[in-house]
Design goal:
Strand order of the largest sheet: 3-4-2-1-5-6-7
Strand content: 15-25%
Radius of gyration: 20 Å
CATH class of the largest domain: Alpha Beta
Bound molecules: adenosine-2'-5'-diphosphate
Oligomer: single chain
Number of domains: 2
CATH superfamily of the largest domain: Dihydrodipicolinate Reductase, domain 2
Helix content: 25-40%
CATH architecture of the largest domain: 2-Layer Sandwich
Distance between the termini: 21 Å
Shape: globular
CATH topology of the largest domain: Dihydrodipicolinate Reductase, domain 2
Structural class: alpha/beta
Number of helices: 8
Length: about 350
């Protein structure tokens, strides 16, 4: 009889949490039980799942007893607060926060890129940063044909990256501006409606914000290339959902545009979207709700024959977060690696 698993979603009421719920149903994940956890604010609220009504519980000391797998999407501080309880309960945590991503004992997994890493887990697997996942899915297939020497990325990140309340804030701000009122800010430091600003994570001594450094360090770890040259500029834009990225890739010698198109048209998790005559390329509105990363505008960089330019849009909540986490869970099921941290690792 196929195995089934007792799963908990930590942060079930959030933007990513509710998407996790949808994806578990949609993809028919082998569930024996599903527990929805959030903060005490949401305790007692109800959510629908496959025709049943499930009640949200406030996360607590006994929440992870009898749980095999925890999908965590309640932010880094909540993940840090509960990781020991989760691992000690013998569950595997797939964590959407940045809390553990760079720990050497924690695999950082994009299933289309490094699925083999999942099996090495010691109780925690990290889901990478959203912009990093979208970029990795789009550029890794090219890297496999010819190693990438340098990546220059500029991002156009939607409000959804800051959670459900941030999406709501942008709508309220837009209404205020249309009514000639001063927009209120709560989640974001500045009005995002009809505006944009560089990503508001802390800035380091070199002038890079945390989001940009995530793209640098996480891409290196996922690709297994510790010295890969990556630079990024991350910008928040007044889009509700789905991030976009402009990416310049440098190779050791010219990479034919036609070959790049051919490779990407067959790449897992990628959909090529290009109609040059119609000037039609990936857009966040069309990427929203889709599993694939939309990639297009592939062209040779006229300033350097060894470089390619491309443009992508991908659903940050889906492939950039919830879908990637569920795909990792599916990998663990396939590899029979939903196991407590201390059990021997058998990489197939
Ligand atoms: P709650 O709705 O009870 O605040 P988003 O990223 O969309 O803002 O969602 C964050 C998710 O994390 C929500 O489900 C939220 O629950 C949950 N969360 C936030 N803080 C905590 C906490 N301290 N303990 C448990 N869950 C939390």
């Amino acid at each position: 009889m196929p195995k089934s698993y007792r799963v908990a979603i930590l942060g079930a009421t959030g933007a990513v949490g509710t998407e996790l719920l949808d994806l578990l149903a949609e993809r028919n994940f082998p569930l024996a039980d599903l527990k929805l956890l959030a903060s005490p604010r949401s305790a007692g609220q109800r959510l629908k799942f496959q025709g049943e009504t499930l009640e949200i519980e406030a996360v607590g000391d006994r929440s992870f007893d009898q749980i095999d797998l925890v999908l965590a999407s309640a932010g880094g501080s909540t993940s840090k607060a509960w990781v020991d309880a989760i691992v000690q309960a013998g569950a595997v945590m797939i964590d959407n926060s940045s809390a553990f991503r760079m720990r050497p004992d924690v695999p950082l997994v994009v299933p289309e890129v490094n699925p083999e890493a999942a099996a090495t887990h010691q109780g925690i697997i990290a889901n990478p940063n959203c912009t990093t996942i979208l970029m990795a899915v789009a550029v890794y297939p090219l890297h496999q044909i010819q190693p990438i020497q340098r990546i220059v990325a500029s991002t156009y990140q939607s409000a959804s990256g800051a959670g459900a309340r941030a999406m709501e804030e942008v709508k309220v701000q837009a209404q205020a501006i249309l009514n000639d009122q001063v927009p209120k800010t709560e989640i974001f430091p500045y009005p995002l409606a009809f505006n944009l600003f560089p990503h508001n994570t802390p800035i380091n001594d070199q002038g890079y914000c945390e989001e940009e450094m995530k793209m640098v360090n996480e891409t290196r770890k996922i690709f297994g290339v510790p010295n890969l040259r990556v630079t990024a500029t991350c910008i928040r834009v007044p889009v509700l959902r789905a991030h976009s990225e402009s990416i310049n890739l440098e190779f050791g010698s010219p990479f034919g545009v036609e070959q790049a198109r051919e490779v990407l048209s067959q790449a897992p998790g990628v959909k090529l979207v290009e109609d040059w005559k119609a000037n039609y390329f990936p857009m966040p509105m069309e990427a929203s709700g889709k599993d694939e990363v939309l990639v297009g505008r592939i062209r040779q960089d006229i300033s350097d024959p060894n470089c390619l330019e491309l443009w992508l849009s991908g659903d940050q909540i889906r492939k950039g977060a919830a879908l990637n986490a569920v795909q990792i869970a599916e990998l663990l099921v396939e590899q029979d690696q939903v196991r407590p941290a201390k059990q021997a690792v058998t990489v197939q």
